Amino acid sequence: MKQTFLDGIIKNNMVLVLAIGLCPALAVTTSAYNGIGMGMAVIFVLVFSNLLISLLRNIIPKNLRIPIFIVIISTFVTIVDYTMQAYVPPLSRQLGVFVPLIVVNCGILGRAEGYSYKHPPHYSVMDGLGIGLGFTIILFLMGTIREILGQGVWLSIPGVFPGFQVFGEAFTNSSVILMILPPGGFLAIALLMGLFNHIRMHK
Questions:
Q1: What is the pLDDT of residues 26-82, one digit of tens each?
Q2: pTM
Q3: Beta-bridge mates of residue 190
Q4: Which phi and psi angles does 154 have, rounded to 5°?
Q5: Torsion (CA) 147, 148, 150, 155 in degrees, nearest 10
Q6: Taking each helix axis from N to C terminus, what angle separates 182-201 and 121-151, rounded to the nearest 10 degrees?
Q7: What ranges make up the beta strands (E) of 9-143?
Q8: Helix, strand, coil: what percent of the chain each, to 5?
Q9: Which residues contact 76 (CB under 8 A, 6 or more apart)?
């Protein structure tokens, strides 16, 4: 089980290795807080949908498995979406439509089809936790890079905390605004992919 968990974080990382789930990774990571929020939502959906699909794997008809997977995933997405709207509305507004779009995230549907439908519940939970945590780490790192370079602060929470000034007020007033715009997402993900591949090649 430990290897299943670690493989989800590194070997099967959705963003850096499989290059799936890029839409939310590029769109919502304008801050580290947003990255954590989206990542936690994905972890919740992955863990519980994997668990339920694994428990029902022997009674789900093969010819109906995909629509059933989507119904199960959408149930947990609805739970996490409504919970965010109720308890963390600023975060819910920041993430916007990308939380409901978790339903059609090919990474989550792929884990349902390729793993939890074929493995027992305890392994499926660890797989979901590993994949979700790996996704969350990358979103957090992307959000950190873009927020620091684009706004000059780190871990800002809208309406609650202005964030830590990293390079001082002078940099905050002349930050690289490009990093919090859509091109900044591509630059951040390219940086992380390049660093990850460099480490793997020189391991």
A1: 999 999 999 999 999 999 999 999 999 999 999 999 999 999 999 999 999 999 999
A2: 0.92
A3: none
A4: -140, 140
A5: 30
A6: 120
A7: none
A8: 75, 5, 25
A9: 44, 45, 48, 49
